[in-house]
Design brief:
By secondary structure, the protein is of the alpha+beta class. Helices cover 55% and strands 15% of the residues. It has two domains: 75 residues, no CATH class; 43 residues, no CATH class.
């Protein structure tokens, strides 16, 4: 019986806190991540622009950096070695090559790989890069 009273009291307190946050013009969130013990740093777009090096360093240390702006909220995440970065010119060249390959296949000039062959090529590539 006493537990339901405590739960009701907490619900009221949470509603009050939510109303205060909703009505306030500015607020900062300090949210420790319970599972990984990471800290989430939430900053405004203006603060991020003024202190970019600082927040990039925070992100490099593994902490979550969230930039809030009128356009929405964005997470600052360092690019890892496994990420692929491709510029517009390279992407256009890859797409152009794929289109030529598809046309040649339709015209009977080229035989496309099967899914099994592509998976085998991928396995060979992964094994050679891991050695």
């Amino acid at each position: 019986m006493w537990q339901s009273g405590i739960v009701a009291k907490w619900r009221i307190e949470i509603k009050k806190l939510a109303k205060m946050v909703h009505n306030s013009k500015f607020f900062c969130i300090f949210a420790p991540d319970i599972i990984t013990n990471n800290i989430m740093v939430v900053v405004t777009g203006r603060d991020f622009r003024a202190n970019t090096a600082k927040y990039v360093g925070v992100a490099l240390r593994g902490e979550d950096v969230v930039v809030k702006s009128r356009a929405g909220s964005f997470r600052v995440v360092p690019i890892s070695e496994d990420d692929i970065i491709i510029n517009k010119r390279d992407l256009s060249a890859e797409l152009r090559g794929a289109l030529i390959e598809a046309k040649e296949s339709i015209e009977g000039k080229r035989k496309l790989n099967t899914l099994d062959n592509l998976i085998t090529e991928l396995r060979v590539y992964v094994n050679t890069t891991q050695e």
